[in-house]
Amino acid sequence: MIQGRKLLEQGLIQLNIQFTDKQIEQFMKYYDLLIEKNKVMNLTTITDLNEVMTKHFLDSVLISNVLDMSDFYTLVDVGTGAGFPGIPIKILFPHLKVTLIDSLNKRLKFLDDVISELELDGIETVHGRAEDLGNNDLYREKYDLCVSRAVANLSTLSEYCIPFIKKDGVFASYKASDSEEEINNSKNAIKILGGSISKVCEIALPGTEVKRNIVIIKKDKCTSKKYPRKAGTPSKEPL
Fold it and tell me: Which InterPro entries does this UniProt record tie to the protein (predicted)?
């Protein structure tokens, strides 16, 4: 555990992210809860301590090298799964009011336990599909920042995510380094949804040769009421 802790601390230093001992303890506890629950529920295929520290925790907070997190107050994580990137971001930037969205309720029950055990305030879980919640006035165009590491084509993902963002807000999509064609092909969909790509930042994962693209999409105008389309349509028929 000491080696994993050091790896995390060194990675955060490399990313110029300030942290406290309490925050590191929260990450270590998160790891323990994740591995224990993973024995009975499929949350992650990555279970090695060092790999979780790098490929889940540090990867989740790469965004802070692209955006000034103090510019944002409300954040929604769409398709959060085991809590990535939303919970690591919340741990390090506790001022954020965070909503974690997932379509599988049992994953959210696990995340509720994590939130309780880590004593995180100002964070909630919401069960539902992005297509349905994106049309719900409680969530539609209510967030400064939307993040997603969900494995979906960016055109599809944009239809899930952009409706949640306020005008002038930001959607940050975590993508692989070889996603240039996918990003280019998504520009029309993003425009239809009221956004535009402001920048694509390639960042190396600390301690590895792995590179990650973070696509920053700015919301220029409100999304048409036509979007998101009904559940299942964005994935079957991307814009």
Answer: rRNA_ssu_MeTfrase_G (IPR003682), SAM-dependent_MTases_sf (IPR029063)
In this predicted model, what pLDDT tens digit does every residue of 124-149 receive, in sequence order?
Answer: 999 999 999 999 999 999 999 999 99
CB of 199 within 8 A of CB of 173? no
Kindly give the residue spans of alpha helices, DSSP state H, lying in the chain: 2-14, 21-38, 49-51, 59-60, 86-92, 105-117, 130-133, 154-161, 180-185, 187-192, 233-236
8 Å CB contact between 227 and 159: yes
Domains and CATH numbers, the chain: 61-236 (3.40.50.150)
Task: Please enumerate, by residue number, every residue annotated as part of a binding site.
Answer: 79, 84, 130-131, 149
The answer to pTM > 0.90 is yes
Closest by CA position to 85, among listed 62, 60, 121, 67: 60
